[in-house]
Amino acid sequence: MSWFEAIVLGIVQGLTEFLPISSSAHLLILSQLFGWDDPGAAFTAVTQIGTEAAVIIYFRHEIAAILRAWAKSITHADARHDPDARIGWLVLLGTIPIAVLGVLFKDQIETAARNLWLVACMLILFGLILGVADALGARVKTERDLTVRDGILFGLAQSLALIPGVSRSGATISAGLGLGYTRAAAARYAFLLAIPAVLASGLFEARKIGDDSTVAWGPTLLATVIAFSVGFAVIAWLMKWLTTRTYLPFVLYRLALGGIVLILLATGLLSA
Fold it and tell me: Terminus of the chain with fewer CB atoms < 10 Å: N or C?
């Protein structure tokens, strides 16, 4: 991977990680369009550490409150009724599905699942799911209303993001909207829920960087720093956007991109 590729892919990672449009799909599609080598699952996982660092800094006050309440709830039973403590426990609970499935299907995720036919279909399918959830969701609940059932369902939705093209934020936001959460609350919890899984995945996959000629540490670190900077700006913009707007533009974008990729694959202009 060249330094130029790292810059472009870092920008794309930062732009697409938090929008419900699938960062992994964009990295795959872009690499194919420009004739670059597939950056691989390890590169994607490590650069996502940069975007998760943006989440931690942007939501630092909320995260600090959750950690304090969660730590207190370990030894004080009465503290377990604190909504922040409940969020902390449910984030851990919601991380279990993606951790287990990620280990069980590791080989398929790194190979067969990175097929562009599958990616295009997932862009379209989960774009439709997001659109329906956004249109029909009650949008009355906040993170303070989280229950164990909701936490489990959020976690199961997040695990679908192991399939490129689904979108981690898109799947969890769709689940949140379907469960009656507001647009902003669904997005905030989706970002918080991703922190343990993304950091663990990035650290686990980091050992593969530099093992072959495709991705070296220098370009990977550059892409990670760029992803952090761009990702922070995207979070700030998206949270403001969701106070008055819907997810419809992202739905339409997913449908258009998925359709274009299918056409390019069918005509041989892209290879799966």
Answer: C
Cα separation values, 121 from 33, 141, 175, 229, 253, Å: 18, 31, 19, 30, 14
Give tens-digit pLDDT for 144-187: 999 999 999 999 999 999 999 999 999 999 999 999 999 999 99
CA 49 to chain centre: 11
Global pTM exceeds 0.90: yes
Amino acid at 211: D
Residues 6+ apart with CB under 8 A from 210: 216, 217
**181: β partners:** 141
**Which among 57, 55, 51, 12 has a CA at the least distance from the CA of 34?**
12
DSSP E strands, 184-250: none
Place of tokens 């819907």: 246
